[in-house]
Amino acid sequence: MHDGDPHEETDVLVVGGGPAGATAAALLARQGFGVTLLEKARFPRYHIGESLLPSLLPLLDLLGAREAVERRGFVRKTGAFYDWGGQEWALRFDGLGPGAPYSFQVVRGEFDKTLLDHARDQGVRVHEETAVRAVEFDDEGRATAGEWISAAGHQGVTSFRYVVEASGRAGLLTARQLRTRRFHDAFRNVATWGYWRGAKPAPDAPEGAIRLYSLPDHGWFWAIPLHDGTVSVGLVTDKHSFTEGRRLLGGTDAFYADRLALAPALAGLLAEADLVTDLRVESDYSYVADTFCGPGWFAAGDAACFLDPLLSTGVHLAMHSGMLAAASIAASLRQDVGESEAASFYQGAYRHAYERLLVLVGAFYDIHQGRDDHFRRAQRLSHRDQRPLRLHESFLHIVTGMEDLHDTRGDTVAHLFGALKEPLAGHERVGLGGHGASAMTPWPTKPEHAVAGLRLTLEPHLGLSRADG
Q: Averaged over 313-331, what is the pLDDT?
């Protein structure tokens, strides 16, 4: 072995150093397990997904990384502002209860590097510029080792007891090897974004808020203030509108500028600002793998699923799944529960979190009151999207009135959308009336939130225990 190369053996191999991988790795290393993390890039590296949810604060506390993130000086996000479907409203996080009064608007390169450096500090053996080319399986179908190559050209194999597949959209296992990734019929959108300097502050918006502006016909804009003085401004539209708009207007830049003129409130804030970067484009980013884990492996974060940027759920799901994976692996390694039980817990708990947010995003899009219904129709969950959902399980004890789903006749998702539009007590009749993403993905620590007969435990260490124990 060359100096600096990964060890030949480790308890847990983590593929990818983004928020999912860094979270799982740090939480496992804090419990004394041997963890090796291989990341193909050199951090910091660019990534989109800059607006974080308040639900990350307790996760950062569990990691012991909150102080390190605070020191970065990111913009404090105290809420959100919506100019959506003919309504305007501000959401302030201080109304969400104790412990979640704010979140962050982050430059992802810096945020992700902070989490990766923290994992290193916890004892994770981190190897950057080292790509995992394939995961090896034994004759019984169990993942056993990772084949890697470094930027220097060194090659090797690291065997493990478990691997956390956190390679992001690349999907080493889910997309490339096992080919279990399925794109949604809904949310097959295109995002186009760039960074502006010199934007005016938005009136009536909470400090550091993300601002969302729906368009009258096709899509919506985000505007995210960052601590480097720029504002991330992105357009999301369906593929048909994007393709036709570019063709008719002569390119991506012209299409972006044309749509910006249809959001006068946002255009006014940018009237004296300059677009200081080229535009970036991503498409077909809404997908889910058929299964999130298997013998010896757990897929976390974007490797398992991704929804849509609308409610800023990407990093939330990444770190949430990293925590669930760490708990499941730790419980298996300590033999607190059986391996198949831990896998069932992970599959169920992560799937529930993802499904709740899937329906939440769908309900928010359903509010869109555009004159042209094409965009709104394009966001609706098709029967193919709905078939694998276990909606009763996912919403039980989460949304008031969902216990009657089994008795629902007709379109279950439409029933859910209707229920979500009814505001919770004390909330205004706007948006989703208090049905926020944070409230929709509680940690399964209570017996009533148990999955596969198990619940998450935080003391004396992160793991799993019997729901009735």
A: 96
